[in-house]
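This section describes the prediction task in plain terms. A model, or a person checking by hand, is given the sequence of a single protein chain and must write out its three-dimensional structure as a string of tokens. No templates, partner chains or ligands are provided. The sample shown here is typical of the held-out split.
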Amino acid sequence: MYKNECFNLSNSHLKKKKMYRKSIMALSFMLLFSFNTSNVFAASTMNEEELKTQVRTAYAAIAKEEKPCFSCNAGGCGETTGKPSAKEYGLSLGYSEEELQEGAIGADLGLGCGNPGAIAALQPGEVVVDLGSGAGFDCFLAAKKVGETGRVIGIDMTPQMLELATKNAEKKGYKNVEFRFGEIEHLPVEDASVDVIISNCVVNLSTNKEAVFKEAARVLKIGGRLAISDIVTTSELPEEVKNNVYLYTGCITGATKIDTLESILRGAGFGEIRIDVKDDSRSFISKWAPGSRAEDFIASAYIFARKIV
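The expected answer:
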């Protein structure tokens, strides 16, 4: 009896400890994802390097999980209940069913907000750079279009993503794709050596968008094209959204006004600027951070420009 009583007491004690740990984890989760200006992770109190570290840490966690999130939620994929399937999310972003087959190797983590290849008009033999290449999904799609005579360079600042992308490239045997460690504000690419720059929901994560587009202009040849999918603001972001670092790493807080974006592009030496807002993006954005009302303030957009100087 004594042993049984001790065993029961021990079990009871363990259960209480587990309940306590769960309570602490739940409280931490609430603090992290609460949408208020007193959030201890307030983005407004962080400098550029601190925000960059938050972004790198968030995407490193996703790379380690090696499973699709199918929302631009960089806080870690977490619970998948209520999220769309890989196919549903991919189709909503503008990919074809054939293109989505490339995600079967683990390259599509579902972190995009569109399909930059749809507006890039890639041609055989072209050199393409992907800003924030992640696990390599858009790079591999581009590699098929530029063929053996072309080349695709993926740039990412997260070592875990680079490792995953390289592994994915080896699985498929791509010879015309390479991945380089670097920041999109300081590209490890030669001047005037690139035909097309693509990117998918990454520029919004930069704290210095002027530097991003100046670097893009530097590496592009005259007449080279910028074809990206990213997030823009459709109305003023509320303070509680601006101040939440989770929403920053989740591709919401860093969105730019359309007129500001146009001005930055012109200042960097781009012309033929087109920014096409995707009104139907509201449906998938609403699932990124439920409760934030992000869909009321931001939208996905296709951004095209050509280097003219």
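For orientation: The chain is about 40% helix and 20% strand.
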